[in-house]
């Protein structure tokens, strides 16, 4: 397997851990519940470790754009599904614009490692 493929795999797992960690942040009730707080910390630690491994191969700007863009989309979906939060039209349009930006970067930028 190529180093780039491995790096994108690390990044995908890092994003998933960050999103799940953020879900536990919500469940921690401002750090007043021990288990969700510990889970959040552990998942964030794994996420940052994997992000650091990703940066050995993928440029920072590209990795962070993917991290941020996909993190926003997945965290928003978690809010809707798990916490019954609503997204209004402006929120959906904004999220779509973020996704569009990440797609443009990955398809058209010469900075992206392929």
Automatic annotation (TrEMBL):
A Pfam cross-reference name: Multi_Drug_Res
Membrane topology of this protein: Multi-pass membrane protein
GO cellular component: plasma membrane
Chief localization: membrane
GO molecular function, a single term: choline transmembrane transporter activity
InterPro entries cross-referenced by the UniProt entry: EmrE-like, Small_drug/metabolite_transptr, Small_multidrug_res
Key words of the record: Cell membrane, Membrane, Transmembrane, Transmembrane helix, Transport
UniProt entry tagged with the keyword Transmembrane helix: yes
BP term (GO), one: xenobiotic detoxification by transmembrane export across the plasma membrane
Domain of life assignment: Bacteria
Parts of the chain that traverse the membrane: 6-26, 33-52, 64-83, 90-108
SUPFAM superfamilies assigned to the protein according to its UniProt record, in alphabetical order: Multidrug resistance efflux transporter EmrE
Gene3D superfamilies: 1.10.3730.20
Compartments (UniProt record): Cell membrane
Family, similarity comment: Belongs to the drug/metabolite transporter (DMT) superfamily. Small multidrug resistance (SMR) (TC 2.A.7.1) family.
The name this protein goes by in its record: Small multidrug resistance family (SMR) protein
Organism: Psychrobacter nivimaris
Organism ancestry: Bacteria, Pseudomonadati, Pseudomonadota, Gammaproteobacteria, Moraxellales
